[in-house]
TrEMBL record:
Annotated EC: 2.3.2.31
GO process annotations (BP): protein ubiquitination
The RING-type domain, residue ranges: 152-338
Keywords attached to this entry: Coiled coil, Metal-binding, Repeat, Transferase, Ubl conjugation pathway, Zinc, Zinc-finger
Organism name: Penicillium nordicum
UniProt-recorded name of the protein: RBR-type E3 ubiquitin transferase
Pfam family, one: IBR_1
InterPro entries reported for this sequence: E3_UB_ligase_RBR (IPR031127), IBR_dom (IPR002867), TRIAD_supradom (IPR044066), Znf_RING/FYVE/PHD (IPR013083), Znf_RING_CS (IPR017907)
PROSITE patterns: TRIAD (PS51873), ZF_RING_1 (PS00518)
């Protein structure tokens, strides 16, 4: 077994285990969110920093694995070419015929198979390091003309590392992704529906070009996700330990069968298959949502909660609607924002980089700014700030820099900036 591969597997296991421990610690802290102790806040900041560092190291490990694979392939190609060159030199070498002194051939030489002898230059090479070095240099110089060329190096928009362009994926927005980052993006889109389908700068990524890069299992899961994403009446396995999406092809009447655990689920009430009428307890959830002021997406039926900002909602299924009445966005007469939420958001923006509580005038200016820019699509208006800040979309702590929308003041990490909005 390759010792490099063994080392990488061990490092991956350690990093993944550490990341799971940090995620669990953060989950426990978030569960006790009402704890206002300064120590708890410090613990969360430290854990967020460590989580960001672990994710960076995991990505670096995956990039290293890709680089080792390319290096191995390059060495194999080079060895085959050198062997071919050596074979041609031997076959093309002229035979050396030594005639005994004082004797001449009595009859013409008859052409026949010859056993090639070692060229004179090759014999001189043995035991002569200088000549051997020059011979090797000529061989490698010849090789450089035919060894597969991986192209110029390009910077990956996601990880900022440089890789040969021939092995990267270019989107129509001109951004380029390395193999590791395009795989990460596909995997993340399967877990977070707001990232599906994978896109960059709101333009779909050329996913067919990735089929030769990602493994078969990931591609199969991606194809299944496309079916799930387009299904407005999805049914998931009623077993909480499974919860896998049930494909339409595995539904007969009102009963769907999970292909993973074979559990049967009612497609009407989404519970385990039963006799008689469905008992729909979703009414209780909807009543709770109504009491909390939540709204329901009419496209995918998920409940959505607006915590700050304007009434323009973009659901994770990408459906845009009014938070007040649920109708498609800009097709109603409702107010575009709630005054209390607008002021709350203005206070957050005004408090940035302020040593003390911002003055009322500063908050009012921020509120007026939001009124003018409330319907923001973050179209190419980002500035990079060299500060440590938490992404307001995914919650990840960015230790070195954050992007801020010039229009609405939203702060986001690079991944959310180019892949989520």
């Amino acid at each position: 077994m390759d010792p490099n591969a063994t080392d990488l597997e061990t490092a991956d296991l350690v990093l993944q285990t550490s990341l799971q421990e940090v995620e669990e610690a953060l989950r426990l802290l978030n569960r006790d969110a009402n704890d206002g102790r300064a120590q708890a806040r410090d613990e969360k900041v430290a854990l967020l920093y460590w989580r960001a560092e672990l994710r960076r190291r995991i990505r670096a490990q995956q990039d290293r694995r890709e680089a080792l694979q390319i290096s191995r392939e390059s060495r194999l190609d080079q060895a085959a070419i050198l062997q071919d060159i050596h074979g041609r030199e031997v076959n093309e070498a002229p035979a050396v015929h030594v005639q005994p002194a004082g004797r001449a051939p009595t009859q013409p030489q008859v052409p026949g198979p010859q056993v090639p002898s070692q060229p004179q230059e090759s014999r001189r090479t043995l035991g002569n390091p200088d000549v051997l070095t020059q011979t090797r240099k000529r061989a490698y110089d010849t090789t450089t003309a035919v060894v597969p060329h991986y192209g110029v190096l390009r910077e990956c928009v996601a990880c900022s590392e440089s890789y040969p362009e021939s092995g990267m994926i270019r989107n129509s927005c001109s951004h380029i992704y390395c193999q590791g980052c395009i795989t990460h993006l596909l995997e993340n889109s399967l877990a977070d529906e707001s990232l599906f389908p994978p896109r960059c700068c709101r333009l779909p990524l050329p996913l067919e070009a990735t089929r030769g890069i990602i493994n078969v299992d990931l591609w199969a899961r991606f194809e299944e996700k496309k079916i799930e994403h387009g299904d407005k009446h999805r049914t998931y396995c009623s077993d909480p330990a499974c919860s896998r999406y049930i494909l339409p092809s595995r539904v007969r009447g009102t009963i769907g069968t999970c292909r993973v655990c074979n559990r049967k689920t009612c497609t009407l009430c989404k519970k385990e298959t039963h006799q008689g009428e469905c008992v729909d307890d979703r009414i209780e959830v909807l009543e709770l949502g109504k009491a909390k002021g939540w709204q329901r997406c009419l496209n995918c039926s998920h409940l959505v909660e607006l915590r700050s900002g304007c009434n323009h909602i973009t659901c994770r299924c990408r459906h845009e609607f009014c938070y007040v009445c649920s109708t498609p966005w800009k097709q109603c007469e409702c107010a575009h924002w709630d005054e209390a939420m607008l002021e709350e958001r203005a206070g957050v923006i005004a408090a940035r980089n302020q040593p003390a509580r911002p003055a009322r005038q500063v908050v009012e200016q921020a509120a007026q700014f939001l009124v003018e820019q409330h319907d923001c699509y973050h179209d190419g208006a980002w500035k990079k700030l060299g500060i440590s800040a938490e992404c307001e979309e995914c919650g990840d702590l960015m230790p070195d820099y954050i992007f801020e929308c010039r229009h609405c003041g939203l702060q986001a990490c690079n991944a959310c900036r180019i892949n989520r909005f």
